[in-house]
Amino acid sequence: MGTQCVRPDRVESESSPGDETRAAGSAGGESILEPRREIPVVDDADVLVVGGGPSGVAAAISASRAGARTLLVERYNHLGGLWTGGLVLPLLSTHGLGKNQQQVRALHGIGNEIYERLKEMDMTVEEVNPVIDPEAAKYVLEVMLKESGTRVYYHSWASNVILSDNSIQAVILETKSGRVAVRPKVVVDCTGDGDILHWAGEDFVQMNYEIGLVHRLGNVDRINREAAGYREMKIGGKTPIPSVNWVNMTGREYEDALDFKRLSELQRQHRIEIWEDFQQIKNTPGHEEVFLLDTAPQQGVRMSRILDGEYRLTLKDSMTYQTFDDSIGVSGAWISVLYDGTRFEWDKRPVWQIPYRCLVPKKTHNLLVAGRCFSFEEDLFQDARIIGTCLVTGHGAGAGAAVAAASGNSVRELDVRKIQDLLKRQNALLG
Amino acid sequence: MAFRSTHIRWIVFGLAIFMSLPFLPAPFSGLYLWGSPFIMFNSAASGKSLAWLHLFGLATLVAVIFKRRWICRYACPTGVICDLSSSARGKRRKDWKFPINRYLAVFAITLALFNIPVLMVIDPFNLFFMGFEGFRTGFGLHAIFKLSGIVFLIVFSLLLPHAWCKSVCPLGGMQLLFNDLKKRLTQPKNPEASHGDRRTFLAGLAGILGGLLIPRLMPGRDDPQIRPPFALPEDELNMTCTRCGNCSSACPTNIIFQSLDVKKPERLLTPVVSFLDSYCLPECNECGKACPSGAIQQFVSEDKKHHVMGIARIQLERCYHQDGRECNQCRNYCRYNAIEMKKTALSHIGLPNVVKEKCVGCGACQVVCPPRVIEIVPPS
Between A170 and which of A15, A162, A370, B270 could a Cys-Cys bridge form, CB atoms 3.0 to 4.6 Å apart? Predict the structure, then answer.
C-alpha cells in the first residue's frame, strides 16, 4: 500500500508515564543534581495555551471567545510562530477537492478571519495558498488576541510541567523574573515540538526532517535586466510588498530538531550560507541594489515530535473522504497526490476531516495538542505540518479546552457535540 | 441421464472459461496455463524458470501414458471450440493428409533448447486463455490481437474440419510422442517405427538449424524498453514470452502493459512497463509468479534491491526546489535511498540527485513528482 511509503527517519519514543521531570538527555553521562526549590505560582487560567504560533493563537482566540479565562505563553517576542517569525509566509492548504470534484475552500473559522483581515489590508498575494506579510500578520494576530481578551506572556519559555494523577497541576515557565509556575485548568500544547506532551509523559514519535532558515531580499524590483552581463538568479518568491521576496531554504539532511547542539551548528551554518548566497546575487550584474532584508528569527524546524494520541490520522483517511463523528475541522491539499493503492492522480487531493481524538493524548486528563505535533501517521506529515492545518487544529483544541475547563471533565470524557456546536458558532467547517 | 466420460470435457471447458473470466483474481486466471506440458517442456528446455506449478503440467503428461491423448479428450478447452466449429461443416470430412503434430512438437522443443521457445505461443491452452484474458484489461487493441489466435483456429476448423487437433497441434503431437515411447517400451518390434523416426529426426535437425539461424535474423537491442522486473534480456524475452498477459493482470498497480508497437512486430504483446499512473511496489513479485513461460523469472521481492529496471532521470530546470518551493516528494517516496539533495551554487537550494548505484527504476519518484519532471529511462 502506497500510503506507507514515506521514509523520513523516525525514532520511537521511550517515554513512560509518571510524575518525574524528563529533561533533555545529557551527553557525556555526567549529571548534576538540582536542589529542591519552591517556585512561585504567578498566575492561574482556565485555559493555558503554550506557544503563540498559528495553532496557539487560534486556540487562544477560540477559548477566550467561548468565555474561558485564557493565557498564552510565547518564547519569542511575536505571535505567528514559524509563519511570521520563521518567514514561512505561504498559508498553505486553504483549498482542496470537495466531494463534488470541485475546488472548495477548507480554511474557515478563526483562520479564515485572520486571512480576511490580512486581505483587507492588502497584505496577501493570491487567493489559493496565499503568501502573507509577516509584520502585518504579527499585528493582526496581536489585535485579534487582544480583542478576544487573551492575556499574553512573551519571552516566557515553558520548561516543564508538574503532574499529579495524570493531570497537569502547573506549567513551569523560564522568564526574566526567574522560574515561575502557572496553574491551569486545561493546557493546550501548541509548542510545535510537543514539549508539553513530552514532559507530561505522553507517547510520541520523533520524526527527523530537514531544517532550514528562511530569509528575505529587498529591492528585487530594482533588478536591471538590461545590464551588461545580466544573468537570472534565484531570488525566491513574491510577497505582498512588491520590492521584497522571501527565499526558502530547502534543507539537505534529516536533522534531529530536539538536539540543541545540532540546532546551534545549523544556525551558524545557515547564517553564513545565506550571507554568501546573497553576495553571489549582489555581485551578479543587474542585482547591485538587492539587499538582504532579514533572516528569520526562528529556525525552520519542519518536523520533530508527533503525538501518539487517541487516534492517529492516516494519509489514507485524508485521501478517501474519511468522515469522523468527532470532526473538529477540515484542511486542504497542498503537495501530496491522491493515491488509491494502485493509481496516483494529480491535483485531486480532497479536503480531509480531522477528528477531535487526534488532539487528545492517551493519559493526561487536561491536555490537548494542536499544531504540527498533533496525532497523525508520519505519511501525512506534508499536509499536517503546514500553516493552514495548524490553524484548524488550533481552533479545534481551543474550543475543546474551553468546554473541558467549563465542565471540569477530562478531555477524554467530553461531549464532542458541545465542542462541535461551539466550533460551528465560531464559523468552523466540520465536514 | 447417466454420467458419461464425454461430460468431463464439458465440465472442464466450463471450468476453463470460468477461470478466464475478468472478475476473478489474477492468480486464478492463469492457473490453467500451468496445466500444459507443452509449455512446461518449452520452459524447461530453454532453461527458464521451472516453478512448482509446472508439476501440474507434468502430472497431465504422466496421465497421457495411461490414457492416449487424454488431454485432447478431456482437458483441452480449445479442442471443444475446434470440434464445435468443425461439426458446423456437417458430416463432410476431409482429412489433412500429412500430420505434422509430432514433428512440430520436436521442432519446438529443439528450438527451445536453443533458447528460442517461440512456438509456445501456439499452445492451445495459451491461445484459449489469451482470447479471454485480453478483455480483463478492457476492450483495447491488445484484446483484439489476443483474440485473433482462437478466431484463426475457428476459421481453420471450418476450412479443414478436425485438422488442427488431429494433425497440427503440438500439444497433441507431444502426447503422441509419449505414447510412441510407451509402445516402443512395451512392444519392442514395430515395423512402422523407423519411418516415423526418420521424420522425427529431421524435425529435430530443422530445430537445430532454426536455433542456429534465428538469433542471426533477430534485430539487435537498439531500442531498450522498460520491462517488468526480472524479465529476460530483450531478444530472449521476445522469443520466450507466450503473450498470455498474465503478468499484466497480476500486477497490483497496473503498470504492466502489452506492447502494441506494430513497428516492432517481434515484441508485439510482450510486457512493457509504464509509470504514468503508479509504480513497481518493492514488496511485490506477482508478475514473476504469474509468468508460465519464464519470460519473467521467478524472484523474491528482496532481490528487487539489486535488480535494475531502469534509472530515474530528472530535468532539474523545472524542479520545484529551483524556486525554493517545498517539495522533496521524490526523496521522501524513494524506498531505495537513491535520491539525495545536493548543494548547488546557491547553498540554500538543494536539488535532487539520483544515486546511480542505488536507483532500480521502480518509478515511485516519477509518479509523485508534482511538476512531473522525472522520467524512468531503460538501463543503458
Answer: A162
